[in-house]
Design a protein that fits this description.
Structural class: alpha+beta
Strand order of the largest sheet: 10-15-14-13-11-12
Length: about 260
């Protein structure tokens, strides 16, 4: 597996400092602390900082049963009791009357309410319903004020059951690659040459688990999420099997 990658820029350095302050506060005051919603990169940075605190336990909650991409860090002293209802996450739902409403449409509508990204967790939408995982501090604002998305009426309310989301694999596609290097993976995903993939990397358009990738030899692993700006986001699945020509088999799903 990929090892720890330290902060790569000023923004990440500031994040690590704030994560350490939150962990220290939980230890000093023997209380439960909650982070804002973290993306995959922030989660790894937070997890690395938590390893320095031997008396602190950290879990990550996405608000539903499934592999959440955005989650809150729950920081508490070891064996400190906590109930699910105390975690500041609310799941909202609304019927969708138009089948062309996307994740981006929903996110944009929420942020138009002046709600920042760190209060918004995963957004799950299909042709019939949308589910918004949000911080409890903003749930009422969304219920009261979000009434339209992309010229279609919506009416959000609290989803009272436990939401379960099974990762969709029906649209999986397959490919073979010479290696698990990022340039080889991009070439396979987008059906372009490796030199064209390298150009995307050098333009700063490629991220893996929300970490900007700057080198063509960056190694990919099973479960990684790769996003290419203005093109799409993909999840990679690889069990290590190889073809007779010693090429790696991969599966991938586009979000």
């Amino acid at each position: 597996m990929r090892g720890y990658i330290p902060p790569q820029n000023t923004q990440e350095t500031i994040f690590v400092k704030r994560a350490s302050e939150l962990l220290q506060k939980a230890e000093d005051y023997y209380t439960i602390q909650y982070s804002a919603f973290l993306d995959l990169r922030q989660k790894e940075l937070f997890k690395a900082q938590s390893n320095r605190y031997t008396d602190i336990e950290v879990s990550f909650e996405c608000g539903y049963d499934g592999a959440g991409e955005r989650c809150l860090a729950v920081v508490r002293p070891f064996s400190f009791p906590i109930e699910e209802k105390d975690i500041p996450i609310v799941v909202l739902t609304s019927k969708l009357y138009e089948n062309n409403i996307t994740h981006r449409d929903l996110l944009g509508a929420i942020m138009n309410l002046k709600i920042t990204r760190d209060y918004i967790g995963d957004i799950i939408a299909d042709q019939e319903c949308a589910y918004l995982v949000v911080h409890s501090n903003v749930s009422e604002i969304i219920i009261q004020e979000l009434k339209q998305v992309k010229n279609s009426a919506v009416e959000f309310s609290v989803y009272k059951n436990r939401l379960s989301c099974i990762e969709k694999t029906a649209d999986l596609k397959s490919a073979t690659v010479a290696s698990m290097r990022i340039d080889a993976i991009i070439a396979a995903l987008l059906q372009i040459s490796r030199s064209e993939g390298l150009k995307l990397i050098k333009q700063g358009r490629v991220k893996v688990n929300q970490l900007e990738v700057c080198s063509a030899d960056f190694e990919m692993f099973d479960g990684d999420i790769i996003s290419v700006k203005q093109i799409g986001k993909y999840k990679i699945f690889c069990d290590g099997n190889k073809s007779r020509k010693d090429r790696m088999f991969i599966n991938f799903a586009k979000y």
